[in-house]
Amino acid sequence: MKAVRLHAYHEPPRIEDVEEPTIEGPLDVIVKIGGAGVCRTDLHIIEGQWADAMGPRLPYTIGHENAGWVHEVGPGVTNVAPGDTVILHPQPSCGLCLACRSGRDMQCADAFFPGLSDNDGGMAEYLRTSARACVKLDPSTKPADVAALADAGITAYHAVRKAVPQLYPGTTAVVQGAGGLGHIGIQTLAALTATKIVVVDRNPEALALAKEIGADETVLADGTHIDAVKDLTGGDGANVVFDFVAEQGAENDAWAMTAPAGYQYVIGYGGEFRAPTLDFVAGEKNVIGNIVGTYNDLVELMVLAQAGKVTLHTKQYPLDSALEALNDLDNGRVRGRAILVP
């Protein structure tokens, strides 16, 4: 089968032929990939940012946002069968550790992360995963239409879901970055809350899309955006800021746009957050980190998606054009999410 394989950090991956995965354990599931999302994390993987944390042996297949059809199952699998349409939680979990039993399966003590850890991912024709990762979908669902919800979607949803108690009517939420994750966060905010949604981005096209999918106000990130947000919030800043950028200074802009006693949710990464400790004390501001969402987050998000309340805006590429898709993402030429279709 064809697969997108990383052979060395700081070098483009290669598209090459490898053997198809096979069943190795009783709960294994082989999925025929119908759509694989292209994520900024894939760029960070290529740059080696995850090398020490995950320690994958190179070469291996990248791709962690996957949906498709069940091709084969292990003898212990009962929740899905060959032919089922599925979206895959990106991090299969054990179900037995304390984190799993408390509903924090994304912090599973025995998890693996295909395409990120030392396990082949889904930028390929087939992927081996676990029964615990499979969310069964309506058979009419096109995997390429939903694949990026598997990681980007639940990462954005997880942050919004946590912030819902702070976003009662009369509050304001700022979404910084209306790209692949941000455009999902905007729709999730509109579906779950009655907050006023203000979107900040440096790209006018991204802001136009934000307005179409639920933003009440948009602000161009041109150096005056902090003051613009304060003007829209009576001088205080937003009750909650969702920072889907968190690099190149955006992480500190998010702090400046957060109101006293407000919440800054850090979802993007790559930068370095700094703030005077006095600001924490005097302002009683809160900074909250976010990892990928749980299996339950994915189930809930798919309810919204199949009801038409959250829609991915995608640009599709054939698997053979994976390098073009990665390059387009790196250079800001993708509005929404890039999806590879084998």
TL;DR?
The chain has helices spanning 40-46, 51-54, 98-101, 143-146, 152-163, 182-192, 204-212, 225-232, 250-256, 277-283, 295-306, 322-330, and strands at residues 2-6, 14-17, 28-38, 60-61, 66-73, 85-88, 126-130, 134-136, 172-176, 196-201, 217-220, 238-243, 258-266, 286-289, 314-318, 337-341.
Low-confidence stretches: none
User: How many distinct beta strands?
Assistant: 16
CATH superfamily of the largest domain: Medium-chain alcohol dehydrogenases, catalytic domain
Structural class by secondary-structure content: alpha/beta
| General shape | globular
First and last CA, distance: 10 Å
Mean pLDDT: 94
**SSE ordering:** EEEHHEEEHEEHHEHEHEHEHEHEHEHE
The tally of domains stands at: 2
CATH class category of the largest domain: Alpha Beta
Q: Sheet with the most strands? A: 7 strands, mixed
CATH-scheme architecture of the largest domain = Alpha-Beta Complex
CATH topology-level name of the largest domain: Quinone Oxidoreductase, Chain A, domain 1
Roughly how much helix do the residues carry, as a percent range? Answer: 25-40%
% residues in beta strands: 25-35%
Number of helices: 12
Q: Taking Cα atoms only, what radius of gyration do you get, to the nearest Å?
A: 20 Å
